[in-house]
Amino acid sequence: MPRRNWTRVLFVLSRLFLGGIFVYASYDKILHPVAFAEIVYNYQILPDVLVNLVALFLPWIELLVGLSLIVGGWLPGALLISNFLLLLFFGTLVFNTARGLDIDCGCFTTSIGPSSGGHMLWYLFRDGLLLFVGFFLLFSFLFLKPPKGSLFDGRWQIPLGQTLALPLLAALLGLLVNQARSDSIPLLGDWSPEAKITLKFGKNILIPLEEARSKFLAGAAVFVDARPPDHYHEGHIQGALNLPLADFDQLADKVVMDFPEDTLIVTYCDGEDCALSAELALKLKEIGFVNVRVLHDGWNVWRRHQLPTQTGEPRG
Question: 0.90 exceeded by the pTM?
Answer without folding.
Answer: no
